[in-house]
Amino acid sequence: MAGDELVIGADGRARPRWAAHDPLLRDYYDHEWGAPVTDERGLFERLCLEGFQSGLSWATILRKRPAFRRAFDDFDVDRVAAYGSADVDRLLGDEGIVRNRRKIGAAVTNAHATRGLREHGGLPGLVWSFRPPARPRPVSTAEIPTRTPESAALAAALRAAGFVFVGPTTVYAMMQAIGMVDDRLEGAAGLLGTDA
After folding, report:
1. What are its GO biological-process terms (predicted)?
2. Of 6, 71, 77, 173, which sits 20 to 30 A from 14 (CA to CA)?
3. Cβ proximity of 175 and 151 under 8 Å
4. Are 92 and 105 spatial neighbours (Cβ–Cβ below 8 Å)?
C-alpha cells in the first residue's frame, strides 16, 4: 500500500521515501519532478542529466546540476554542439561535474542531434509525440515501471535521430521528470505544494 511507502514530513505532506528526507530531493519533488517541460533547452538538459545519472544516484546529479549548467553553457544546444576537443578536455578537468568521457561526448553528440531535429518538428515535438495515455496513479512503488513500450519506442526514435545514451530506462526516467507520466503514489503530495 502507498501508505506504507509514504513518509509524512514535518510540514504534514506525504512524500515517497526517496524524496522525504534530503532537503534537495524534497524540493525537487515538490517543485520540479513531474512538471511539464516542453522547450528544447529544458528537454536537452533533462536528457543530458539523465544520461550522466546512469550508474549514479539522482541526488548526486542534482547536487552537481549548478556546476553542470555552468560547464555546459546552461545547456544551450548551439553552444554545446560547437564544442571541440578543447571543450571536452575542459569538461574532463571540471571537478564539479561527472567527468566521464563517454557521457560528455554523448552530450555533444546529442546537441548535434537536437539541432538536426529542428527541421522535423524539433526535440519537443518528437519527445511529446510518445506521451502515453493517462493511467491511474500507482498505489505502490511495485506498480511503477522502469521502462514502458512508449519509452522503448521513444528511445528507438531518438537513436534513429542520432542520439546516444538514450536507453528505454533512461528515457522513462526523463518521461517521469518532465511530466509525460504521473508516477506519484496515490496519496502523495502533489506538485508545487498541492496535495493529491
Report:
1. base-excision repair
2. 173
3. yes
4. no
Give yes or no: 28 in active site. yes
Nearest to 56 by CA among 45, 64, 67: 64
Domain ranges of the chain: 34-130+138-191
Q: What share of the chain is helix, strand, coil (3-state, %, to 5)?
A: 60, 5, 35
Burial class (CB in 10 A: 0-12, 13-18, 19+), 98: buried
d(CA 69, CA 137): 32
18 in catalytic set: no
Tell me yes or no: is domain 34-130+138-191 CATH 3.40.50.1950. Answer: no
What pLDDT is attached to residue 1? Answer: 43
Report the DSSP beta bridge partners of residue 15: 7
- The region of weakest confidence among 5-14, 41-50, 62-71, 109-118 is 5-14
Selected catalytic residue, list 18, 28, 32, 186: 28
Distance in angstroms (rounded) separating the CA atoms of residues 61 and 97: 8
> Which of the following is catalytic: 29, 58, 83, 172?
58
For the chain, the distance separating the N- and C-terminal CA atoms, rounded to the nearest angstrom, is: 16
For residue 187, the model assigns a pLDDT of 85
Catalytic option among 5, 50, 83, 172: 50
Percent of the chain scored above 90 by pLDDT? Answer: 87
